[in-house]
């Protein structure tokens, strides 16, 4: 663990991810724009530096965990790459557009470095516990050199293919999740209208061909799955704003690649409206309440 890591973006996810690297004995130089994030990082054993470029200087590996592709590309194009020693491995863990991820990789390579996309699922709880799932788009050799580090922050690390393909896996998975959560929620509301109890629908569908994760692990109505956010006033979990973001990326990719993903595009519209109307802070499974409200209007 004598690698030096530059970690840029110490927010909800990046903060605990960097903390786990420091706890595992890595030298982590961290930077964020928000002073409170830097104070927490110091408490977590991260060496706070004055800029993103300072985090990259002298690092073997630079990890970014930022809100969106424009933040990642903004840094890559704004002097970060020049600040690093040749051959540095740049790992972007943010969830961003596939096209942006490929551009980030190409910029890193053009600057004499190595680049990969390694978006995650598992949320803040997974980041804190070090049990994230990583979906990696990278050359084989780069993947192998990053693997030990990713295994500190995550419990499951999958090499999905070449650069950009990690992001592809992330948005495809979340498109399945968004569409299936809407489908499950529509079925519960329709069942209610037809005099079918939530528990009875759950008992049937969870053992039949309607079975899926949105139903059996994350049931959007209170009762059947005690650990689902529905039993906790729809506190996230996975906030609707984040589902909106990920479906927006999926919709972009559908359009950009000529895929007639009618349900994926519709799911993006539904979560965008829900985000706008509610502020997006509730768990994404609260979509069931929006459907029920419309049903009763
Ligand atoms: P966040 O907003 O909490 O953290 C992002 C951090 O980046 C902020 O602290 C911000 O100050 C910092 N930042 C922005 N621009 C910067 C710059 N130029 N230099 C340094 N720091 C900068 O977001 P988050 O929840 O940690 O999510 C980060 C990424 O992970 C997003 O792409 C998100 O989609 C993805 N993601 C989030 C979750 C989740 O549950 N929160 C789960 C999976 C993936």
Automatic annotation (TrEMBL):
Catalytic activity annotation: 3-hydroxy-2-methylpropanoate + NAD(+) = 2-methyl-3-oxopropanoate + NADH + H(+)
GO MF term list: 3-hydroxyisobutyrate dehydrogenase activity; NAD binding; NADP binding
Protein's pathway: Amino-acid degradation; L-valine degradation
Keywords: Branched-chain amino acid catabolism, NAD, Oxidoreductase
Domain 6-phosphogluconate dehydrogenase NADP-binding: 4-161
Signal peptide positions on this chain: none
Transmembrane segments: none
Segments forming domain 3-hydroxyisobutyrate dehydrogenase-like NAD-binding: 164-289
One Pfam short name: NAD_binding_11
Top-level EC class: oxidoreductase
InterPro entries with a match to the protein in the record: 3-OH-isobutyrate_DH-rel_CS (IPR002204), 6-PGluconate_DH-like_C_sf (IPR008927), 6PGD_dom2 (IPR013328), 6PGDH_NADP-bd (IPR006115), HIBADH (IPR011548), HIBADH-like_NADP-bd (IPR029154), HIBADH-related (IPR015815), NAD(P)-bd_dom_sf (IPR036291)
GO BP: L-valine catabolic process
Keyword Lyase set for record: no
Entry annotation: catalytic residues: 170
EC number: 1.1.1.31
Domain of life from the UniProt record: Bacteria
Entry similarity comment: Belongs to the HIBADH-related family.
Name of the protein: 3-hydroxyisobutyrate dehydrogenase
């Amino acid at each position: 663990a004598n690698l030096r890591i530059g970690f840029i973006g110490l927010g909800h996810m990046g903060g605990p991810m960097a903390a786990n690297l420091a706890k595992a004995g890595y030298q982590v130089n961290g930077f964020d724009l928000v002073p409170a994030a830097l104070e927490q990082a110091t408490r977590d054993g991260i060496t706070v530096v004055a800029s993103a470029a300072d985090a990259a200087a002298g690092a073997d590996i630079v990890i970014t965990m930022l809100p969106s592709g424009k933040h990642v590309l903004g840094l890559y194009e704004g002097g970060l790459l020049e600040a690093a020693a040749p051959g540095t491995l740049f790992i972007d863990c943010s969830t961003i557009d596939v096209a942006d991820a490929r551009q980030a990789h190409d910029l890193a390579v053009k600057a004499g470095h190595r680049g990969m996309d390694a978006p995650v699922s598992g949320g803040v709880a997974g980041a804190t516990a070090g049990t994230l799932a990583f979906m990696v788009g990278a050359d084989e050799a780069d993947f192998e050199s990053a693997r030990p580090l990713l295994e500190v922050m995550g419990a499951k690390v999958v090499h999905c293919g070449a650069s950009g393909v990690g992001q592809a896996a992330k948005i495809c998975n979340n498109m399945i999740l968004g569409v299936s959560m809407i489908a499950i929620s529509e079925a519960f509301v329709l069942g209610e209208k037809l005099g079918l109890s939530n528990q009875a629908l759950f008992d049937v569908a969870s053992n039949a061909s309607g079975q899926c994760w949105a139903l059996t692990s994350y049931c959007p109505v209170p009762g059947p799955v005690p650990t689902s956010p529905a039993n906790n006033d729809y506190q996230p979990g996975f906030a609707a704003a984040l589902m909106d973001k990920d479906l927006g990326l999926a919709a972009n990719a559908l359009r950009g690649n000529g895929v007639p993903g009618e349900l994926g595009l519709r799911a993006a519209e539904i979560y965008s409206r829900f985000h706008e109307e509610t502020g997006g802070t509730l768990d994404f499974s609260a979509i069931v309440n929006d459907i029920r409200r419309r049903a009763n209007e």
